[in-house]
């Protein structure tokens, strides 16, 4: 028994060290740039794969093994240079949500690249020579490799602590983080300093990937788990400090170890419970740090680019025409095209639900697929097992379920540092949803729900089992929902959301309960996403775990960004364009993660206001300076990246 | 009657004690100014009263109600309006939309009618109330201008309109003339007096500009190193040797 | 030493400075007066290439600065003490001063210790963190810090703003002394005429982004309507 306990603790600590190394990188970048790097886990994974490519199936000596890990670290550090120069440095002065989305896109690209280069198979690597034998202490045998991992983690921790708090380089970095503008005036090359720090954080990720390689088998899912655990560790420890990250990581390692011993049939669940408890009782973490307080954003020349009201009639005609074309689709399109069109209609609603949160409330969800999946599984199960339940009632149930889950999550996430916590917690929600579904026979585990029957609208006696009939139903239902959302978002509630997004402190001093408004917006968003999922299940007739993947969560973000987040109609247009692209390039399957990530990144860097933003800039330029001046001196955007946070169209 | 009472408030950041047992009371309808050298704790005291950063010890009372730990929106609903040192308005909205948002917020706070529940556009009563306020403060003619394009002085004015739309009983002004030209400063000073006289609003302000303070304030509190040096009328403050020592120096210098 | 010609500065679409021309000779002490919002800070930031978009020519010691980034301008020997002081809160007073030695670029400069000895008010505070100082102490530290880089030209942006008059009086001698000892030229942006007169011997006046007057203090006094019109005391 004692042996078992010691082994468990040893495992816990070695896992904790791996988490710490990822968390330390995240914390460093957060402290410096005030952003969460969502790609940190992916670069940990790339470090591991790089080390695997060198080592293969041979067994190295300890120095050679450490050398390989250092090499992997250096290679990932160079990727950090590339990342900083191409992406991060361009987004330094805009709303941090764009940076979050950019690193999210980068993560998707990394996943794609890993799958293309190394495939989806599992690999494993032997510990170096001398560490593969157990260490005997009396009657107890310990894994030498685990001891090595723990020692390595502690050494790196010590080096970081000393460098940050004792050495000049650490003071320099802290100064760069808190007063970059002044540091430049003191003769410090700020952009070089930030780049070097980012490279160092990436180096840590790569090094950790190499050192921890024999700890577990290697697969493209490796990064996701460590990313989440890394995030959790810094939330528990307190954002932006190394000691907290260490304690948080060890705590998570212990919790996970206990989980495996006490609840072997539910692996990986306890960590989420601990996180929720922490967020509820100690949301500021173990070591609250000043660095975690968001800096007041530098005031830029933001331009409001509201569309002219006179054009609204034309747009109405275009919209009606498109709706007519969509209605006529079943008469002339083949089954493939109809399927893509129907899915696009659902994804348009899904994207709109995401943008209620982002465009109207200023919060980003990175696990929105969880709500979609909740709706889809809910509908799928009821249609399969209780076909007598009226379909509209099921959809209503989806909405209620989505709103309730969002309400619970909001209660945890929206109390402090709303944006960052919500980002992490929504990812966690998607992950825990995926885990729970994969453990449930009732929900079909890895296989999903297959052969979901299409419903009959009882009261009206309309049979929706044919594709065309269900497609028409989809179209009408989504149109009605969009109409309702338009009404909600353009009326009084929309105005409250918009003032909360623009300046939450000011809004609070008008008597607006900001937390409640944000929670309500999140609940509305979750409800709509779940209803979209509910509509989707009978259309696709199959629902699988893929509906909860990161890829699925990227879909609404991409669609909304593509169309333009500062317009009600942007997400719908984005969904349409994306569906057309997908239909046009359907031969390129397998590259999807890379393509989606790259496309998202491209939009953020080149056209952050999406298609509608481009259109407005074009229209403004065409109308010429005179009229533009009258509206307050807006010139067409010369550098769109400077105008990320432009105004909301009130029309 | 005292509308606002601060009772032995303390505040520290880590080891640094910024406020030490600060007490004050503000009577209904008066203008109360808080002055002191930079770093004396004025801003912290202000934040304790507005609820941005709650006190570590002591209590804050508004109309006989303990609001020491009430969040910002509660204070706003109870009738405390405020402006920020750097005016904060809704940049994407036009001047009119800004004030409409504030009027709607007030009506919601006071459970007054907001018009028909299904209406998209704001109720005509709300709009006309907003426009009357805009005219009153002298922003008429710029209703359609997006707030981000207003001049510094006009942004300050717009913030006043927003605060007044709440029909506050107490108006808290954080350095209302900071960063303004002398002419604009006078304009704001007149505005403050007018608000008090016409609407009977009590005003609490922090201010650097001694001319403004001496001209407006009924009572002045002098803060130094987080402690109250003295509270009194303008005459008492001017004559007080302790104040001369810490704040004004040997002779009052003018720019 | 510093020669600015046809300088135009922009924040986004807003045109802040119009064709500004200004010179500072080696060791000279110059004041730039103007109301709030007249463009004083924008001018200093433009010369440092630290914020506004800039057109026009800025020459320092005969060299055209072009698009040189601000950290390299600092290393050439121009030190800006900004209005809001920008003290690094989690570094001690001594460390704050030492941070500026990155701008030294091989020039001889006072050590942080020597600088603290000169600014006697800072001496008892050396171990304090920047964030724990009062406004006046921070202002003094910001000026002291600039000297760790061995500057040839010092820009002071409204050093008296928000300071008690008693501190302002003490500051005059300290600034004059250290500038003279190090042969540092001074460009002082101010609204406080008394302080400017005590510190400098040449005046520029700026109003809504345009220079409207330059001359020595005698010329300034000979034109009382300038004060009336542009500085409105």
UniProtKB/TrEMBL annotation, chain B:
This is Branched-chain amino acid ABC transporter ATPase. PANTHER family: AMINO ACID ABC TRANSPORTER ATP-BINDING PROTEIN, CONSERVED COMPONENT OF ABC TRANSPORTER FOR NATURAL AMINO ACIDS-RELATED. InterPro entries: AAA+_ATPase (IPR003593), ABC_AA/LPS_Transport (IPR051120), ABC_transporter-like_ATP-bd (IPR003439), ABC_transporter-like_CS (IPR017871), BCA_ABC_TP_C (IPR032823), P-loop_NTPase (IPR027417). The keyword Transmembrane helix does not apply. Coiled coil: none annotated. Keywords: ATP-binding, Nucleotide-binding, Transport. Gene3D superfamilies: P-loop containing nucleotide triphosphate hydrolases. The keyword Nucleotide-binding applies. It comes from Alloalcanivorax balearicus MACL04. Pfam families: ABC_tran (PF00005), BCA_ABC_TP_C (PF12399). Residues 4-250 form the ABC transporter domain. It comes from the Bacteria.
Automatic annotation (TrEMBL), chain C:
Residues 2-233 form the ABC transporter domain. InterPro entries: AAA+_ATPase, ABC_transporter-like_ATP-bd, ABC_transporter-like_CS, BCAA_Transport_ATP-bd_LivF, P-loop_NTPase. Keywords: Amino-acid transport, ATP-binding, Nucleotide-binding, Transport. Gene3D superfamilies: P-loop containing nucleotide triphosphate hydrolases (3.40.50.300). It comes from the Bacteria. SMART domains: AAA. Pfam families: ABC_tran. Belongs to the ABC transporter superfamily. This is Branched chain amino acid ABC transporter ATPase.
């Amino acid at each position: 028994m004692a042996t078992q306990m010691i082994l468990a603790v040893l495992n816990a600590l070695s896992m904790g060290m791996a988490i710490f190394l990822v968390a330390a990188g995240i914390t460093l970048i957060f402290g410096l740039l005030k952003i969460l790097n969502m790609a940190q886990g992916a670069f940990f994974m790339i470090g591991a794969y790089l080390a695997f490519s060198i080592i293969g199936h041979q067994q190295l000596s300890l120095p050679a093994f450490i050398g390989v890990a250092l090499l992997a670290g250096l290679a990932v550090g160079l990727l950090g240079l590339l990342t900083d120069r191409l992406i991060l440095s361009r987004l330094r002065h805009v709303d941090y949500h764009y940076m979050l989305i950019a690193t999210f896109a980068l993560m998707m690209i990394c996943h794609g690249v890993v799958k293309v280069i190394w495939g989806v198979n599992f690999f494993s690597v032997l510990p170096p020579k001398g560490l593969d034998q157990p260490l005997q202490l009396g009657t107890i045998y310990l894994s030498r490799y685990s001891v090595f991992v723990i020692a390595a983690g502690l050494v790196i921790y010590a080096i970081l602590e000393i460098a940050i708090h004792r050495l000049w380089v650490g003071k320099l970095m802290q100064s760069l983080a808190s007063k970059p503008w002044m540091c430049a005036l003191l003769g410090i090359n700020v952009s070089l300093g930030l780049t070097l720090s980012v490279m160092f954080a990436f180096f840590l990720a790569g090094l950790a990937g190499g050192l921890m390689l024999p700890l577990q088998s290697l697969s493209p899912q490796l990064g996701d788990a460590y990313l989440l655990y890394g995030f959790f560790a810094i939330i528990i420890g307190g954002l932006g400090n190394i000691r907290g990250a260490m304690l948080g990581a060890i705590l998570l390692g212990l919790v996970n170890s206990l989980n495996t011993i006490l609840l072997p049939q539910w692996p990986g669940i306890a960590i989420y419970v601990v996180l929720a408890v922490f967020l509820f009782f100690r949301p500021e973490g173990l070591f609250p740090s000043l660095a975690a307080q968001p800096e007041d954003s530098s005031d830029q020349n933001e331009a409001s680019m509201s569309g002219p009201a006179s054009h609204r009639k034309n747009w109405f005609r275009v919209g009606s025409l498109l709706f007519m074309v969509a209605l006529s689709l079943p008469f002339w399109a083949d089954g493939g095209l109809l399927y893509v069109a129907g899915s696009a209609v659902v994804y348009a609603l899904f994207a709109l639900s995401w943008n209620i949160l982002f465009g109207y409330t200023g919060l980003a969800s990175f696990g929105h697929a969880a709500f979609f999946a909740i709706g889809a599984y809910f509908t799928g199960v009821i249609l399969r097992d209780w076909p007598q339940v009226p379909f509209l009632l099921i959809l209503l149930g989806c909405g209620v379920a989505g709103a309730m889950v969002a309400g619970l999550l909001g209660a945890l996430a929206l109390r402090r540092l709303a944006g960052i916590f919500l980002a992490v917690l929504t990812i966690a929600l998607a992950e825990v949803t995926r885990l729970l579904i994969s453990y449930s026979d009732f929900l079909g585990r890895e296989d999903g729900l297959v052969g979901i029957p299409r419903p009959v609208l009882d009261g009206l006696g309309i049979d929706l089992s044919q594709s065309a009939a269900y497609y028409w139903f989809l179209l009408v239902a989504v149109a009605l929902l969009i109409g309702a959302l338009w009404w909600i978002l353009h009326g009084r509630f929309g105005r409250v959301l918009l003032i909360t997004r623009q300046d939450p402190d000011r809004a609070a001093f008008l008597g607006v309960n900001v937390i409640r408004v944000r929670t309500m917006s999140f609940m509305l968003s979750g409800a709509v996403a779940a209803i979209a999922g509910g509509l989707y299940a009978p259309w696709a007739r199959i629902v699988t775990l893929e509906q909860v993947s990161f890829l699925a969560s990227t879909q609404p973000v991409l669609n909304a960004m593509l169309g333009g987040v500062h317009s009600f109609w942007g997400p719908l247009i984005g969904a349409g364009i994306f569906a057309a692209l997908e239909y046009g390039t359907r031969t390129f399957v397998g590259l999807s993660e890379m393509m989606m990530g790259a496309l998202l990144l491209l939009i953020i860097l080149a056209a952050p206001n999406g298609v509608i933003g481009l259109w407005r800039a074009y229209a403004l330029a065409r109308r010429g300076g005179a009229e533009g001046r009258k509206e307050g001196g807006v010139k067409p955007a010369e550098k769109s990246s400077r105008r990320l946070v432009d105004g909301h169209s009130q029309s | 009657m005292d509308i606002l009472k601060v009772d032995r408030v303390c505040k520290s950041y880590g080891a640094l004690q910024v406020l030490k047992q600060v007490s004050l009371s503000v009577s209904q309808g008066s203008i109360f100014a808080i002055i002191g050298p930079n770093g004396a704790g004025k801003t912290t005291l202000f934040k304790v009263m507005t609820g941005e950063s709650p006190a570590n010890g002591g209590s804050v009372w508004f109309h006989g109600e303990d609001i020491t730990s009430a969040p910002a929106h509660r204070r706003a609903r109870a009738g405390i309006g405020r402006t920020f040192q750097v005016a904060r308005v809704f940049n994407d909205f036009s001047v009119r939309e800004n004030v409409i948002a504030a009027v709607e917020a007030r009506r919601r706070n006071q459970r007054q009618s907001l018009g028909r529940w299904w209406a998209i556009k704001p109720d005509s009563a709300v709009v006309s109330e907003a426009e009357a306020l805009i005219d009153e403060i002298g922003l008429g003619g710029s209703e359609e201008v997006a707030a981000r394009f207003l001049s510094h002085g006009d942004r300050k004015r717009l913030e006043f309109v927003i605060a007044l739309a709440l029909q506050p009983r107490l108006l808290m002004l954080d350095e209302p003339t900071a960063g303004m030209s002398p002419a604009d400063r006078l304009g704001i000073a007149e505005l403050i007096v007018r608000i008090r006289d016409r609407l009977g609003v009590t005003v609490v302000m922090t201010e650097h500009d001694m001319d403004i303070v001496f001209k407006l304030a009924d009572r002045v509190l002098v803060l130094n190193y987080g402690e109250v040096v003295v509270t009194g009328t303008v005459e008492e403050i001017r004559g007080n040797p302790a104040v001369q020592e810490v704040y004004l120096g040997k002779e009052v210098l003018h720019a | 030493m510093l020669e600015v010609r046809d300088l135009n500065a922009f924040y986004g679409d807003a045109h802040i400075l119009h064709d500004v021309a200004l010179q500072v000779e080696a060791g000279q002490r110059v004041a730039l007066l103007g109301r709030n919002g007249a463009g004083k800070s924008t001018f200093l930031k433009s010369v440092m290439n630290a914020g506004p978009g800039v057109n026009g020519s800025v020459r320092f010691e005969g060299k055209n600065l072009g698009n040189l980034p601000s950290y390299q301008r600092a290393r050439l020997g121009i030190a800006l003490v900004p209005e809001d002081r920008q003290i690094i809160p989690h570094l001690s007073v001594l460390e704050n001063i030492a941070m500026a030695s990155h701008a030294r670029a091989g020039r001889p400069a006072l050590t942080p210790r020597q600088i603290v000895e000169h600014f006697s008010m800072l001496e008892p505070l050396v171990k304090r963190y920047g964030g724990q100082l009062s406004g006046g102490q921070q202002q003094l530290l910001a000026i002291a810090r600039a000297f760790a880089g061995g500057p040839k030209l010092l820009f002071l942006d409204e050093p008296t703003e928000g300071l008690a008059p008693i501190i302002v009086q003490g500051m005059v001698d300290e600034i004059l002394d250290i500038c003279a000892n190090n042969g540092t030229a001074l460009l002082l942006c101010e609204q406080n005429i008394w302080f400017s007169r005590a510190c400098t011997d040449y005046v520029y006046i700026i109003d809504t982004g345009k220079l409207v007057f330059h001359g020595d203090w005698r010329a300034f006094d000979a034109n009382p309507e300038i004060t009336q019109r542009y500085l409105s005391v």
